[in-house]
Amino acid sequence: MPITPELLAQHGLTAAEYEKILGLLGREPNRTELGVFSVMWSEHCSYKSSRAHLKTLPTAGPRILQGPGENAGIIDVGEGWACAFKIESHNHPSYVEPFQGAATGVGGILRDVFTMGARPVAIMDSLRFGPLSAAKNHAILEGVVGGIAHYGNCFGVANLGGETVFDPCYSGNPLVNAFALGIARRDQLFFGRATGVGNPVIYVGAKTGRDGIHGATMASEEFSAASEAKRPNVQVGDPFLEKLLLEACLEAMATGAILGIQDMGAAGLTSSSCEMGARAATGIELDLDRVPQRESGMSAYEMLLSESQERMLLVAQAGREEEVFAVFRKWGLDAVAVGVVTADGHMRVRHRGAVVCDIANAALTDEAPRYQRPQQAPQRTLPLDPRPEWLPGSGRDLQADLLALLAAPNICSKAWIYEQYDTMVRTNTLVGPGADAGVIRLKGTTRGLAMALDGNGRYCALDPRQGARLAVAEAARKVACAGAQPVAATNCLNFGNPEKPEVMWQLAEAIAGLGEACRALGTPITGGNVSLYNETLGQGIQPTPVVGVVGLVDLSQGLLPLGSRFRNPGSAILLLSGAPRQSAEEARQRFGSSEYAAAVLGQTWGLPPALDLDGEQRLHEAVVKAHEWGWLQSAHQVSTGGLAVCLAECCLGRSVESAARARLGAAVDLQTDQEPWLALFNETASRVVVTCTPEDVEEVTLLAQRAGIQAIELGQTRPEAEGFRIACQGRTVVALPLAAMAAAWEESLARQLEPQAATA
Amino acid sequence: MKIGVVVFPGSNCDHDALHAAEVVAGEGAALLWHESEDLGGSEVVVIPGGFSYGDYLRTGAIARFSPIMAAVGRFAAAGHPVLGICNGFQILCEAGLLPGALLRNAGLRFVCRPVHLRVESVATPFTGACEVGQVLRIPIAHGDGNYFAEPEQLEALERRRQVVFRYCNAAGEAAPEANPNGSAHNIAGICNEGRNVVGLMPHPERAIAAELGSADGLRLFESLLLCQ
To answer: For the complex shown, is ipTM > 0.85?
Structure first.
């Protein structure tokens, strides 16, 4: 079959890339080989547009056992334990087929974690949708949430929440980023390496079908009106099979007969075999006739490019195959020797007696194209300063504004979503969804693991570098609010088409910002994923880097992680702040990126919040130390909606650790010379609301002073009956019963998703 | 005491049930494989939660045919204590060891959250350490927990005091708003006529320590010690 320009276009390869293939092979590829190059050189697998920039990220640190380049990053937890974690996108499939797209996103990230030898114990997700007023967005949300619930609940992993954000830019481009974390003994880790020439290569798990062919290529292009036709490219997940695969893999690993293992994710059999070979500087020879198949008559091309789910490739010690087979038989799974490790560094594939693919692994991995794509800062379309008429007047009803914000889609309770997830299975969950961070205990140790996700597309659209810095800062701050020391990060970079210089500039700036913040906050990047081409009909998303941060919390001597909700009436409420001082003019400019500006004023202008990374880091240290001293009762960071929303959430929020307790009210007086609307709703970073006993206020204040941050006493927690009161310099601006706030905050999402039920 | 926890393909609360059983039974707690008919000398059998055989076809419908369920049937017939939690309750109903069936939740979605349960009967091996009317706080996590039985069956269950747990509010009232899944008569758990087989949708094994949100679930396991 001749290689025509049309065929190259179908495979997403450029003429220059094809020239490079000819050079590397020294001959023309056959069609199977062209398919193999196509997926391995796709943006999704090769990171060809982002790699040059990703290389600048900090990846080393005292706790890092495995950085980027493996299926998941690994950190040292202590007491003989390690933790593997990663975040990955499944945006394109979730748009085409929301339920299965999201389900297989969870399935893929779980396999990435357990292929390292770690049992998954927690997942989180970062979701973005268009406004629910459009039926299509509503359907996508229900499908995505249903898919995540279906897969995670059946598999048996606790979902600790995450974030859900709505913005019109995600209407044609929903984002589904799934994070998973697993634990393993430090001396029992596994890697994706095909070691030992002559060792058998074993295929385990589900049979190979025709599903998901060219999924990686689909994820590397923009969507058009014809994208509905891509539905067959989306894989179908079977969480039950994955649960069996997990148990069988962990049991097989315990035999000691397994030397290397890798999940067959994007680009399936192709990527797993050439990547395992490339990492170990070996080759792999495969015989496709031995691959378990779900359908008859599949071609080599189809088998190599299939993205059928719940499959793994492993390399075992020669002579010990039977030990591995026995375990998989017990769990009712296929396990077949399909190849052998070779010395020549080639991926060689036979089918029906003939060699159908013979390519050096390096040509598919290290030699894949790298682009320094042109960058161009976009023309700024939004004003830097607000028009005077946009700003609230002095007679503004801030109480009504607070209620409106509490019901705003980006702030309201997400219980409708996370109550569909099993948040407690494996009985490790100390802090579940609805708090700043999720926290699990590590049975048999004195430690807990805290984790949080954050991203903010609006901040990044206004300034991608600053937006990315803020995402790292907020994710780490959430972890610190649990009383945990942030130690490592993973990232998922969701952007538009990198061939547009403006998008490439956003990507490069965001990565630079991530690097700055991760260095300053001591959270190296251990891996992640890049999702480009999030564009439909030419409409791209706001640049949306999502950051996951993992931290360690000391649980010795009866310490428990901190929750965000107030614990006791009569406690002192303090604001700890590492934020830089700013002029009144700067504060107004930065207010333009707030949720209040967008949701209440209907405007966006200016810049994201200011951030002093040094102050941020000192804030984390102070919160963690105050928790270790046992002085804090709760901690909640100030973020979307500003201080007023933060305080309201401290009264309303619900989580495993707080659900049994009665709600509490609060009375605070802000001693500020800012206008009340600015004081209540600005989103200045590096701030945390904590509570402690009145007796401990002095200790906490002193500790903050020593750490070089501010501690401002705002007021006290009160019994629920006394309601929620905020004053500015003695003048009351908000006085609400908790029931009114709860009605706005708790029921908003259900009202939008189930209008019939709400009126019934 | 020897407590056996059955493992089906797809069980995912097996380790949690084992962990809870170990609190009262120490090293006497063990896992039992579904393909075996040997209960390993267990004095109590727990069928844990999860998605046995993927819950394809119908929840619990395939698990009832596994070899171990034949052994559990004989064990139950001999009057020994059997506890089915969540998927375990569904399996016991499918196996005919408990009456009724568990339908899709009335809200049609999976629900995971802490709920209140009122103890209706202490005359079972799993509730002896409770008091009638006591309110326990225990989480649910299921998509098919809507208890159904024919009207005359329900009437018989009530008459024979086979309803062991009812969904209620914090004050202990079995109010309609406290019913998370549409179950008939707010039923969360029942026992058989012999009172030795108990099934419930909520997860007592998840409520065994204050830091997990509640330790009320321990009462069910501690009750076993009173039977010795």
So the answer is: yes
